[in-house]
């Protein structure tokens, strides 16, 4: 297959093995891209975008997921600059740039002049991992959610998203799509929560993506009136215990540096920083 300038071209099904070998050089950091490739076979119609690969000497050296999220994979500074040049040629189609801090920064510097002003830039996001039992007692009442829980779960998901991102996922008619996403995670067994004896949600978290090597957590939330009571610490320990036993041996997430309360929770549970992520949101 012909390559384009700088040895960059879209990857396809024939490149899947090479891509997975690349991503699994750091299978925890690259869990999102690994999951997307494995579940779509790198077919653009299932990816909802493209996976770009950069080749050196005929070997895949770096990649970049380009869908709703743009995510560099094993990309050094030169790779990120080359991906930015390709992205400039097609214009912005993504809503978020996210991934290892150095690659995101180089990519952003390459596209900033033409991609317009982002809604927010978060340059310091510790990427955390745990590959051992939690260091605190797990909440025994944390469980997988079911469709019967959606009336309590869905509003909590909307509240968490709005608090974290700054806009509601229901904005601009997005409610139906977001509800479908929440229901999909429930049906996969990737949604976890703790409820009180009246059925009120006290804690929730989800697995965003998973491979045989790692699972990435998202959407950790405790209602404001219940915060500071230890629910998040015991709840996260419960999620880690279930996920490591039934989904993947390593659990990861990334968190904003300024979110000191969340970082304290994750530290108590046993998460340790492995690298830094950055996110640019439009």
- The second-level CATH architecture of the largest domain is 3-Layer(aba) Sandwich
Helix content: 25-40%
3D shape: globular
Strand content: 25-35%
Overall pLDDT, averaged? 95
Number of strands: 12
Structural class: alpha+beta
CATH topology of the largest domain: Aminopeptidase
Report the major sheet.
Answer: 12 strands, mixed
Largest sheet strand order: 1-2-3-4-5-12-6-11-10-9-8-7
Q: What is the succession of H and E elements?
A: EHHHEEEHEHEEHHEEEHEHE
The CATH class designation of the largest domain is Alpha Beta
GO molecular function: acyltransferase activity, transferring groups other than amino-acyl groups
Protein name: GNAT family N-acetyltransferase
Organism: Nocardioides agri
Domain N-acetyltransferase: 140-282
3D structure, described in words:
There is one protein chain. The protein is an alpha+beta fold and 282 residues long. It folds into two domains: 5-116, 3-Layer(aba) Sandwich (Aminopeptidase); 143-275, Gcn5-related N-acetyltransferase (GNAT) (Aminopeptidase, 3-Layer(aba) Sandwich). It has nine helices and twelve strands. The chain has helices at residues 16-23, 31-40, 44-47, 77-90, 101-115, 150-165, 175-188, 231-246, 260-269; strands at residues 8-10, 50-56, 59-66, 69-73, 96-100, 120-130, 143-144, 191-195, 201-210, 214-221, 250-254, 272-281. A twelve-stranded mixed sheet has the order 1-2-3-4-5-12-6-11-10-9-8-7, with helices on both faces. The mean pLDDT is 95.
Task: Provide the fold topology.
Elements lengths: L7 E3 L5 H8 L7 H10 L3 H4 L2 E7 L2 E8 L2 E5 L3 H14 L5 E5 H15 L4 E11 L12 E2 L5 H16 L9 H14 L2 E5 L5 E10 L3 E8 L9 H16 L3 E5 L5 H10 L2 E10 L1
Parallel strand pairs: 4-5, 10-11
Antiparallel strand pairs: 1-2, 2-3, 3-4, 5-12, 6-11, 6-12, 7-8, 8-9, 9-10
GO molecular function, one term: acyltransferase activity, transferring groups other than amino-acyl groups
Organism: Nocardioides agri
Protein name: GNAT family N-acetyltransferase
